[in-house]
Amino acid sequence: MESKVVLVTGANGGLGxxxxxxxxxxxxxxxxxxRKIQKSDFSSPSFxxxxxxxxxxEGAHALVDQVVARFGKLDVLAHTVGGFAGGQSIAETDDxxxxxxxxxxxxxxxxxxxxxxxxxxQTGNSRIVAIGSxxxxxxxxxxxxxxxxxxxxxxxxxxxxxENKDAGVTANVILPGTMDTPANxxxxxxxxxxxxxxxxxxxxxxxxLASDAGKDINGAVIPVYGIDV
Length: 229
Ligand SMILES: NC(=O)c1ccc[n+]([C@@H]2O[C@H](COP(=O)([O-])OP(=O)(O)OC[C@H]3O[C@@H](n4cnc5c(N)ncnc54)[C@H](OP(=O)(O)O)[C@@H]3O)[C@@H](O)[C@H]2O)c1
Known about the structure:
Blueprint: E1 5-9, H1 16-25, E2 29-33, E3 47-49, H2 57-71, E4 76-79, H3 95-123, E5 126-131, H4 144-164, E6 169-176, H5 182-187, H6 199-210, E7 221-224
Parallel strand pairs: 1-2, 1-4, 2-3, 4-5, 5-6, 6-7
Helix pairs in contact: 1-6, 2-3, 3-4
The chain binds NADP nicotinamide-adenine-dinucleotide phosphate (NAP).
């Protein structure tokens, strides 16, 4: 990964921090983004923090333009931005919640894809790995807005896989079950954390898909459910 330029969205998140560290450990040049990301979030000199709001196309374009201007290319887009809302049936779901889920889970990926695909195509042999959710293909009662936004995202990534294979760009999406993040431990203190998916496992998979070893995997939708399948 030494010569690779990697953009991690949501780099300071529960999963994103592991993803960022995995690429830094492999000596890649890593640009981490989120609204509040800071250089001090990671100690490596190979890490650059570029704060951005990627629910807007302008924010996503400005971000990718900066990456290409500073580092000359983009090899890997690891997109982890997303968020959860639950506890309401569809009949109870208000517009604000529905639009928030679409903004976080669908618009963010749409905008970062639109902004990054030209650069990824130009690099060639490049990778897109996005994080969906188990809920994308297994809807549950009370999480309809979240599930719908993640399902649409899966469709988008599979389309991008088809549209960019001619340039050697792969696009895959990982569907984690509940992950063992600090936020989940806080909101579900009585759960059995050992049954949850370790973020480091998902980070390793993203890393592998982004490496030369993952070259032939394109358009895959990969469940990572832990031992609680
Ligand atoms: N946690 C789970 O159990 C679980 C299970 C299945 C799937 N997932 C999915 O896995 C991914 C990572 O989950 P996580 O638990 O690591 O989430 P998280 O800790 O909430 O991290 C979300 C990240 O996205 C950034 N972000 C949010 N809105 C943004 C925006 N508009 N523009 C730019 N950055 C934005 C946040 O940073 P700022 O606040 O600094 O912007 C943060 O870095 C998400 O897509 C989530 O839906 C999670």
